[in-house]
Design goal:
By secondary structure, the chain is α/β, with parallel strands linked by helices. It contains 15 helices and 12 strands. About 1% of the residues have low confidence.
Length: 491
Amino acid sequence: MDYLIYSLIFAGSALMAFNIFLYVRFARKIRERGDWERERRILRIPIVLLVLFLAGYIAVGIGVLGEPNIIMSGILFGGSIFVFMMVWLMQRIVSRVRENEHLEAKLIAAEEANKAKTFFLSNMTHDIRTPLNAIIGYTTLAKKEQGSAEKQLEYVRKIEIASDQLLAIVNNVLEMSRIESGKIELEPKIVNVEDCIRESAELMRAQLAEKKITFNSSCNVSDKWVLCDKNLLNRVLMNLLSNAGKFTGENGIITLSLNQISSRDGVGDYEFRVKDTGIGMDPAFVEHLFTPFERERTSTVSKIQGTGLGMAITKGVLDMMGGKIDVVTEKGKGTEFIINVSFPIEKQEEQKPENSAESIRFDGLRALLVEDNAINMEIAKLLLTQAGFELDTAENGQIAVDKVIASESGYYDLILTDIQMPVMDGYTEARAIRALPDPSLSGIPIIAMTANAFREDVKTAEEAGMNAHIAKPLNVSDMLTTIKAVMDGRK
């Protein structure tokens, strides 16, 4: 009997000591999760009781209260188990509360994201319909206008502006998706950083002049040749300037400036500033400025076209570049964006003279145009024949391969091909032509002319054996310049 009693006392003492350890750790975690200063004394009470419980074990064990007996030992041991279950239950309850808090936070975040996307879709519906309405409306007017060529040209110019707006909206949505998925990578090249300011200024000056906005630009750098992704840097500047133009009224002022802050160990520190005297922003909105799909909810802003993605794209690009962007704004007085970014300094490159698109001709050359869409085929045929090409056509890659095989050496000087086509796609077509045994046929220059316009699409085209890539919608200047570079390279 004594053996059983002392076994209960020993096991109960060990369990009670473990209970004290569990409760101390539990109380510490509770205090770490919030302000429990007022409850600290209450949290200490169970410790005192647990210690007294342990003291009771010791007293019974050494016989202070008389000879230990089975009833007292059993009560103490049962109490120890009860205390352990209570501490375990409290821990489970707190753990469940934490899980609920975490789920609630995720639910709130999801609801906020859904609200933002709903707001974004609402804006998108409006913003997409606005240029579409202009395109459809001016196309109808141009068809009805029979007598005045000048009036028709004006309608075509407005259709072109609306088309550019629509393309910018689509590009923003696609680009934000690719930034979030990590599919955009920097492609640094040696460039003149002053050109970024000059080109952005030239693109915006005419637009701002139409709104009677004064536009100033300045550049103060000692190391202008740097290694950077010029296209993405220009995208950042154009996003900021476009926003400044949207939110600045007549007789306002917009300033674009570039200053070199310092240079060290072959790296230059540059500061870009875009400042406007527009409507400014509410300080509360600035905290959400770089969140995708967010736009300030005011009657003035709601009337202005935008997807709420431009600033998120800007922040994403600068993060990839290792730069940072700050904003200084005051409601009713304007906004200034300050970009700080570092680029490796490079040696000056020789400037190669560029031919204007109007002067590029391909008279006497025969091209095979491969396209399954009738409208795209018609547009490309008109543009290429105007540039001097003699054209043959094919509706898919298999027909193109068959025509190349059946042709004489030197018959085709160039192949321009779509990618997504029935029967045989453009990649398979290019591989089939490159695998032909006759070098005069397998070596025909092939250019992808496709809406698959991402950088991985360009890389896939190169891997398939294509010489270059032209993105749709077609930019005539880019198309002719690319074709010329390929044909000059062949020579």
